Automatic annotation (TrEMBL), chain A:
Domain 4Fe-4S ferredoxin-type: 149-179
Superkingdom of the organism of origin: Bacteria
Cofactor: [2Fe-2S] cluster; [3Fe-4S] cluster
Name of the protein in question: Succinate dehydrogenase / fumarate reductase iron-sulfur subunit
From TrEMBL, chain B:
Catalytic activity: a quinone + succinate = fumarate + a quinol
Residues making up the signal peptide according to the UniProt record: none
EC supergroup of this enzyme: oxidoreductase
GO molecular function: electron transfer activity; flavin adenine dinucleotide binding; succinate dehydrogenase (quinone) activity
Protein name in the entry: succinate dehydrogenase
Transmembrane portions of the chain: none
UniProtKB/TrEMBL annotation, chain C:
TM segment ranges: 16-40, 60-81, 110-130, 150-176, 203-224
One GO cellular component, as annotated: membrane
InterPro entries: Cytochrome_b-558 (IPR011138), SQR/QFR_C/D (IPR034804)
UniProt-recorded name of the protein: Succinate dehydrogenase / fumarate reductase cytochrome b subunit
Annotated keywords: Membrane, Transmembrane, Transmembrane helix
Length: 249, 644, 226
């Protein structure tokens, strides 16, 4: 396959940035999208040009490090991570536009690399059960209905890639935040801090500058792990019931 | 130097309890006076950083990824072992200990492995309390499965994403301590060197991957939780960023490196599809529970297959060779990883490989689907089949999967004593970065167990023993040793940038990987290893004269990051070859063709090689010095593994 | 900041207000439609004029109507606050976007739809509410009792084809607004459940077609009756 790539190039956070066009040839259908970019970078390096910087690590679709807004969609045309996207999803002669995630809380650091530490700060605000190591009850002490454990697992599968934010017209982080709120609200272990968690995580999400939710469902449609927006509804319930009933003023 | 493993005296089952009582404690009010650096935020790093911060120490946690949640522990699929015996099927701490020692082909310490089995039960309790959504039965209790050929069901799992859920649990505990102000996080920061003052590890030098800033961090102890070095092979199931740099730089400062050649090659990975391949993807070995491994019986049929003249489904039953079932009638397709991998290599070497490259065997679900129905198979392996389809474009419900072994885990690592301290006082190694618990071969679902055991339940006790006997005085980072280390780091980076040769970094990495795979992979010979050593030396020389590293240090620079890591892989590769060459026996993942039983199985030499090889770095261009820590087996009888 | 103002300044609190006011306005649509359908009774506007008189005099209705205005205002104000915030959350737009593959058009354009409906509302209130309340309305009497002949004003307005076209078109936009807004309000309130959500979605869709269609029917019928 021969392709034309329009890639966002930006030297650093302060730089304005612009698209640059690259031609690339002899791409095999069996390559992953990132392997295609590896080939481009190897070509650029050989010519002494700065390779295109993009985030990636596990290349198995689980670490959540890869991003890229490919041809108008986060992680490209398939509902998967960019590292699991293969070139057989494209055709010879295609022009592919590659942009970084766009959101105020995700500043571009270089080319296609963005800073997603806002997600870490949302988790730090309350995405945990406050138990120290040791001194916990036996793992089978509290039975958990299988259906509840499965629902919690569905929410817990979030890989924190940020595709939900990238897909949302409002750059909202509701799906990400609600996945963690849901997981812990469903499990008995999360009950003790249930109210304070919802309040604090939502407050942090807002403080980071993410947009509000318009319930378009774009996040769910693009989430590579298929996290459902029922989690957003659950977080809304959690939040509303927390603000009217918690002891915090 | 005599290597003192500090294994406590006394009966096996009492060692850890006794040790916990005997270690010195740091007074609760004094803990805040001590600073601890944790490098790496995988299972070992995140659990250690969180647990130490909970105790009151000041922790600084470093990772090269953009978030601690992305460390490669996240990719572990199958599960985590624990001797809970919830299934009432005869499991016990002793049985888990025994299985692990035997599985490691008797090249691990009894004391360490017993402790691992002992604390395994606490890990599950801890994770459940954190909200890790393990799989459950309809009655609400935890589900278990048998894994990797174990005779008991002791593996806890969360779908096929156990590593992810455990890591997110540890990450949440870490995040809580960040919010409490007890842990300071340094993402996108790579450790470049250990700083030694008065013979002790007192800090590290790091590079900020965004700005290129070289910075020093001072502490009273340094924990390396930096994972394994499988990427020395270029192609492995490791993440792209996984590297040996932190461990290797520590090694060059005096930490002994143990059993570097002990590498685990996982049998069920998706085969290489071409030169563009950047990494390999593992598929859970649970697939071997129902899939049948085979290749064509003759080279002629295999050739037709490779040329695309026939397809797998055209090959008649009598023309198929189910070689594992044929050679190992009792274990069949469920033989341990090393045996399954080696046999795949043999049939492919004979010319019976099944894909275009000739390096693949079939894993066929036809009979299982016929027996149980597609729905049952889909329920068990649906997500794995989907993943396979996504990557290869083939539908495993209709055509057999193709698999081939790939480098997966490294049992070797920094030498540590029972306290997890390296030969440098104050420098610890946890998780895959150390060598301690898996011997020459790691059992399935044991990596997660070890990472969390080290971080949650071992280091919080043993670090106190060291810190309590050291003053709490802090050393400022303008100390001459820090300045010196910073300069060394900068000079090395500048040197890489100034070569301006003609070859890219990947060119060298791929070449090194091929040498390692061909000569220091699944089967090794003296001749091949000797050849490999010369080739690596040559490649290293070429690297330092002809590599082209683009850009400058003061920016996000992928090319420089890679070059820095590959320069260390080149040195490690040579040591791995030395280690494989000196060990004139076969054990676990280390298979020397000269040393095998008449049936082609690994032949150990317990008389001469029942020791841990610990290598000491002597200086640039010098051969490393071998030290031996004898392995004493007081509780288990050494036997030959047999899976016939 | 008190917990109330803190909640109302959070995105979730503001969304809650949007959902609650939206649902109230949905209810209002039903009541309003029920009354207006009397315009189609073949009695020369008698029942409609009587109904209008009741609406104007009943104290409960007057309170509700003030509430109704307040809710419209709140719905508009908070939509402006939220839209501004949402715009700021993505300062640099994508060069290429295929949003149509992951969401429906109406859900992404509630602001535009809402603005059009607001313009309609202003014209509508000016043309009828303001005229009836403060303008000079012809009188009519039934069984000796005097009534404002509101029907005449309506009939007059709906004699104008441009006016009718504007009404019908506006109801189209209302339909789109409701097609997302109805189910979305339930989702925002957290009322998402495997058993009931499919039903809510279906009812929402039916509602968003039926109610605006009936509203649009009135000017059309009256235009052709003339």
């Amino acid at each position: 396959m021969n392709l034309t790539l329009k890639i966002w190039r930006q030297k650093n956070n302060a730089d304005k940035g612009d698209f640059k066009e690259y031609k690339i040839s002899d791409i095999s259908k069996d390559m992953s999208f990132l392997e295609m970019l590896d080939v481009l970078n190897e070509n650029l390096s050989e010519k002494g040009e700065d390779p295109v910087h993009f985030d990636h690590d596990c290349r198995e679709g689980i670490c959540g490090m890869c991003s890229l807004y490919i041809d108008g969609k986060p992680h490209g045309p398939q509902q998967t991570t960019t590292c699991q996207l293969h070139m057989r999803s494209f055709s010879d002669g295609d022009v592919i536009t590659i942009e970084p995630w766009r959101a105020k809380p995700f500043p571009v650091m270089k080319d296609l690399v963005v800073d997603r530490s806002a997600f870490d700060r949302i988790i730090q605000a309350g995405g945990y059960v406050s138990v120290n190591t040791g001194g916990v009850p036996d793992a089978n002490e509290i039975p958990i209905p299988k259906s509840i454990a499965d629902l919690a697992m569905d929410a817990a599968q979030c890989i924190g890639c940020g595709a939900c934010v990238a897909a949302c017209k409002n750059a909202s982080a509701m799906l990400f935040t609600s996945a963690k709120v849901s997981q812990l609200a469903l499990l008995p272990q999360g009950q003790v801090e249930r109210k304070i968690r919802a309040e604090k995580m939502v407050a942090q999400m807002d403080a980071e500058g993410f947009g509000a939710c318009t319930n378009t469902g774009a996040c769910e449609a693009e989430c590579p792990k298929g996290i459902s927006i029922t989690n957003i509804a659950r977080m809304n319930r959690e939040y509303f019931s927390a603000v009217v009933s918690s002891d915090t003023l | 130097m005599i290597l003192d493993s500090k294994i406590p005296e006394g009966p096996l089952a009492d060692k850890w309890t006794k040790h916990k009582f005997n270690v010195k404690l740091v007074n609760p009010a004094n803990k805040r006076k001590y600073d601890v650096i944790v490098v790496g935020t995988g299972l070992a790093g995140a659990s250690a950083a969180a647990s130490l911060a909970e105790l009151g120490y000041n922790v600084k946690a470093f990772c090269f990824q953009d978030s601690p949640r992305r460390a490669h522990s996240i990719a572990a699929q199958g599960g985590i072992n624990a001797a809970k015996n919830y299934q009432n099927d005869g499991d016990s701490v002793y049985r888990l200990f025994y299985d692990t020692i035997k599985g490691g082909d008797y090249r691990a310490r009894e004391g360490n492995v017993y402790r691992l089995a002992e604390v395994s039960v606490n890990i599950i309790d801890q994770c459940v309390a954190q909200g890790v959504p393990f799989a459950r039965e309809y009655g609400g209790l935890l589900a278990n499965r048998s894994f990797g050929g174990a005779q008991v069901s002791r593996t806890f799992y969360a779908k096929g994403q156990t590593g992810q859920q455990l890591l997110l649990g540890a990450y949440s505990a870490l995040s809580r301590q960040v919010a409490n102000g007890k842990v300071k996080l340094y993402p996108r920061t790579e450790m470049m060197d250990v700083v030694m003052i008065d013979g002790k590890a007192r800090g590290i030098v790091t590079r900020n991957l965004i700005t290129g800033a070289i910075e020093s961090h001072s502490a009273h102890a340094v924990l390396l939780c930096t994972g394994g070095y499988g990427n020395v092979f270029f192609l492995s199931t490791n993440a792209m960023g996984s590297n040996v740099t932190a461990a290797w730089r520590a090694h060059k400062k005096g930490a002994f490196f143990s059993n570097p050649s002990f590498t685990q090659i996982h049998p069920t990975c998706i085969p290489v599809s071409g030169d563009h391949q950047s990494k390999l993807t593992l598929m859970s070995e649970s697939l071997r529970n129902d899939g049948r491994v085979w290749v064509p019986a003759t080279v002629e049929t295999a050739e037709k297959l490779r040329k695309g003249q026939i397809t797998a489904n055209d090959i008649k039953e009598e023309d198929r060779d189910y070689y594992l079932e044929r050679k190992y009638p009792s274990f069949g397709n469920l033989v341990p990883r090393d045996v399954a991998s080696r046999n795949a290599k043999y049939v492919c070497d004979e010319g019976r490989g099944v894909n275009e490259t000739g390096e693949a065997v079939f894993l066929d679900f036809r009979d299982a689907i016929k027996r149980d129905g597609r729905n049952v198979i889909e329920a068990k392996y649906g997500n794995l089949f989907d993943m396979y389809m996504q990557i290869t474009g083939d539908n495993p419900y209709e055509v057999p999967m193709m698999i081939y072994p790939a480098v997966h885990y490294t049992m070797g690592g920094l030498w540590v004593d029972y306290n997890l301290m390296t030969t440098i006082p104050g420098l610890y190694a946890l998780g895959e970065a150390n060598f301690s618990d898996h011997g020459a071969n790691r059992l399935g679902a044991s990596a997660l167990m070890q990472g969390l055991a080290d971080g949650y339940f071992v280091i919080p006790y043993t670090i106190g023993d060291y810190l309590a006997s050291n003053s709490a005085d802090r050393i400022p980072v303008d100390h001459p040793e820090f300045k010196k280390a910073e300069k060394e780091v900068s000079d090395r980076l500048q040197k890489l940038l100034s070569i301006k040769g003609e070859k890219t970094v990947d060119y060298f990495h791929k070449k090194l990987g091929k040498i390692m795979w061909d000569y220091c992979g699944m089967a090794r010979t003296e001749e091949g290893l000797t050849k490999a050593k010369a080739m690596i030396k040559e490649l290293k020389k070429e690297f330092w004269t002809n590599v082209n590293v683009l850009g400058s240090n003061e920016e996000l620079n992928l090319s420089l990051e890679k070059a820095n890591r590959v320069s260390d892989f080149l040195e490690l590769g040579e040591l791995m070859v030395d280690d494989a060459l000196h060990r004139n026996e076969s054990c676990g993942g280390h298979f020397r063709e000269e040393y095998q039983t008449p049936e082609g199985e690994a032949l150990r030499d317990d008389e001469n090689f029942a020791y841990v090889a610990a290598w000491k770095y002597l200086g640039e261009g010098q051969e490393e010095e071998l030290h031996k820590e004898p392995l004493v087996f007081e509780n288990v009888k050494l036997t030959q593994r047999s899976y016939k | 900041m008190s917990w109330v103002s803190k909640t109302l300044s959070s995105t979730l609190g503001q969304k809650l207000l949007m959902a609650l006011t939206g649902l109230f306005l949905i209810l209002f649509l039903v009541v309003h439609l029920a009354g207006n359908l009397q315009l189609l009774f073949p009695d020369g506007g008698e029942s409609f004029n009587k109904y209008a008189a009741t609406m104007a005099s009943n104290p409960f209705i007057r309170v509700v109507s003030i509430g109704n205005f307040a809710f419209i205002l709140l719905h508009v104000i908070y939509s402006i606050i939220l839209t501004r915030r949402n715009k700021q959350s993505r300062p640099v737009a994508y060069a290429v976007s295929k949003a149509s593959t992951n969401s429906v058009w109406a859900s992404r354009n509630m602001g535009i739809l809402g603005t059009i409906i607001l313009i309609f509302l202003i014209v509508h209130l000016k043309g009828f509410y303001y005229e009836i309340k403060f303008g000079s309305v012809p009188m009519t009497s039934y069984e000796g009792v005097e009534f404002k002949d509101v029907y005449a004003i309506v009939a007059n307005a709906y004699g104008n084809i441009l006016y009718v076209a504007f009404y019908v078109l506006s109801m189209g936009f209302l339909a789109f607004h409701l097609s997302h807004g109805f189910a979305s309000a339930f989702q925002t309130l957290g009322l998402n459940h495997v058993k009931y959500s499919p039903l809510i979605k279906k009812v929402g869709l039916g509602f968003s077609i039926l109610i605006p269609a009936l509203f649009a029917l009135i000017p059309l019928v009256m235009f052709f009756q003339n």
